[in-house]
Amino acid sequence: DTAVSQTPKYLVTQMGNDKSIKCEQNLGHDTMYWYKQDSKKFLKIMFSYNNKELIINETVPNRFSPKSPDKAHLNLHINSLELGDSAVYFCASSQDSPDGQYFGPGTRLTVT
Amino acid sequence: SQKIEQNSEALNIQEGKTATLTCNYTNYSPAYLQWYRQDPGRGPVFLLLIRENEKEKRKERLKVTFDTTLKQSLFHITASQPADSATYLCAQASGGSYIPTFGRGTSLIVHP
Question: How many C-beta atoms lie closer than 10 Å to residue B70's C-beta?
Answer without folding.
Answer: 12
